[in-house]
Amino acid sequence: MEPYRPFVDALVCQIVDSDIDYSELTPALKKELLQIPVLDVEMDGEKSPLMIATQRTTASVARCFEGSSRKILYPQLE
After folding, report:
1. What is the DSSP code string of 11-58?
2. What is the dihedral of CA 19, 22, 27, 32, to 10 degrees?
3. Are 36 and 54 in contact (CB under 8 A)?
4. Residue ranges of the domains in the chain?
5. Is the pLDDT of residue 59 over 90?
């Protein structure tokens, strides 16, 4: 989901700037990329792992489709 792309992009930029070899998918690179689901994001005034925030965004989209809400929750960029 596009609202989460800046968080992934920031991690990828950190990898590129580090001394990790990113020319191939090594165990070290996999380890870094596996941080994505547990990156801290802020949503609705609370910090939580990115994987929880995506669930909250998805649930808010479902509520909008149901008609029970008119607001989609997105993470706040720091």
Report:
1. HHHHHHHSS---SS--HHHHHHHTTGGG-EEEETTEEEEHHHHHHHHH
2. 70
3. no
4. 2-66
5. yes
The CA distance from 75 to 78, in Å, is 9
* Rounded CA separation 75/40 (Å): 10
* Token pair belonging to 37: 């689901």
- DSSP structural state of residue 70: S
Q: What is the pTM of this model?
A: 0.81
